[in-house]
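This section describes the prediction task in plain terms. A model, or a person checking by hand, is given the sequence of a single protein chain and must write out its three-dimensional structure as a string of tokens. No templates, partner chains or ligands are provided. The sample shown here is typical of the held-out split.
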Amino acid sequence: MKGLFCRAGATDAEPKFIIQETILPDVLTSHQVRVQVKACGLSPLDLKLLSDVGIQRDLIPVGREVAGVVLQVGPKVTFFQPEDEVVGILPLDSTCSGLCDVVDIDEHYLVQKPEKLSSVCVAAALRDGLSAYTALHTHARIAPGHTLLVMDGGSSFGLMCIQLACYHGVKVLTTSHSPQQHTFLEQLRPSVGVQEPLVARVIPVYNNSSDLLPVVLEETGGLGVDIVIDSGVRLQEEEEEDEEKKLLPHKHDIISVLGVGGHWVTSHQDLQLDPPDCRLLHLKSASVSFLNPEVWTASSAQQGRYLHILKDIVEKMSTGVLRPQPEEAVPLYEATVAMETIQRHPKKKAVVQL
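The expected answer:
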């Protein structure tokens, strides 16, 4: 049985992705479920995070968002039985690659997959759905009437944030990184109900003219937004060589658009706030949270809440509340190339159909 694994390179060397033979144990442990994988989503590997939590292996399994059918259950499994369709995310310390035909996973990392929801769709979007749910509910505590600014709303993560926020009665502003994204976001409509645009205002940032602050203040009556969710920030004002980084907002711009008591949820791991930044946050009584969706599987302290979130995400996908951008599935033999691309460009998505 073949799976995809990463061989981490030496310092500054790019990791190598290889197809490797692997074998599952003959006997399942008490709460394990053996799943035949139908589709697996690919996301970038955070090798520094793995090292920080003490996971160091020569070969690191790749592909963790899986959807499939239960083949066999352990003696103490109570949630599932053979032939159930399931979906879940393999934990950080899993020894299985999600691109194997069959994987063993603890029942507490799985939820039932609705019948009409395709395996490819849910495997491609599950991680972004979890990230959006964590950012909006766990960190930002969204409520009807709030105003939200989503950076890069055309990304798969940004799109999930927009749809989830609108479902809860939140006014959404977003930025676009290309003319095509801008048109797409302006035309975004809910799948059911009143066909008003999901986004109140789309702010273009691709033409190097930053209208972010004046537009946000115009839309909020000069008060600023309650919540900002970014997908990365620039820490310095210097010109960036990387085209993708040029489109990221500067940290001062984000702090400036926050209203009093506002909340900034950042994906930037190495965020550095200088004393003037902290002073401005203090004046606004605003707060900053770091978005790390891996905490759900890195700790079992809130396992029940995590399963509730996963179940709610797949139900919202099934009913059309969350409509992820469709991803064309790639075969297993193209997984290595797809993963190399994702590792270099973390915002890209891919899903492998087995």
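For orientation: The CA atoms of residues 153 and 159 lie 5 Å apart.
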